[in-house]
UniProtKB/TrEMBL annotation:
Signal peptide: none annotated. It comes from the Eukaryota. Pfam families: DLH. Residues 29-237 form the Dienelactone hydrolase domain. This is Dienelactone hydrolase domain-containing protein. One of its GO terms (molecular function) is hydrolase activity.
Amino acid sequence: MTTSQCFDNPPTLSSTCGAGIVQEIGGLKTYLTGPQDSKLAILLISDVFGYEAPNLRKLADKVAAAGFLVVVPDFFNGDPVDLSNPRMDRESWRKAHGTDKGCDDAKAVIVALRSKGVSAIGAAGFCWGGMVVVKLARSDDIQAAVILHPGHITEDEINEVKTPVAILGAEIDSYSPPEQLKHLGEILSAKSEVDSFVKIFPGVSHGWTVKYSVDDELAVKSAEEAHCDMLNWFMKYIK
């Protein structure tokens, strides 16, 4: 599910942005960046604006610079949210692009990565993607998860998490408010078998890690801090 905040600050999409290439993996067009022969991969799952968002691809390139193969699939099959289209119906879009299907598609990508010799996979999801990642974290498909300013996550989903998980949230978030994320963190803390980390970033809004404005110094600094936290989590567990 998505809220109005999910549609704020839409990026200007670009099919050619980033240092990587686009190939098909697991049946999906995918932005790939980083060493192609790496045995360590990071799956980035976008918000509703999809895999051509420049800030998302910039982040993928940053993670790749640490030695990971980074994959950013087009989970919407060329149909991201397009607010410039007056005929776009948000509710119809939500129904067409559910997170259960997103999880199934992500698993197909993971299978494809494994077939190429990848031995460890981390996954990070933003907003819509965060709801997909929590589903992946309930299985052994990934070895670490990072959930950034997610959409709605249930207590049942958190109770079933098996994978080390970090949750990075915004202070100003109507759908995943800080108190809700802290509550989920308390549930995770009670699971001694699962390492977890919850952090709330002050003064920023839902989506800030990939929808920040380069002119907003606070948002840029906060996004970079969140990116660093995400990368450190993967460096700890994806090896």
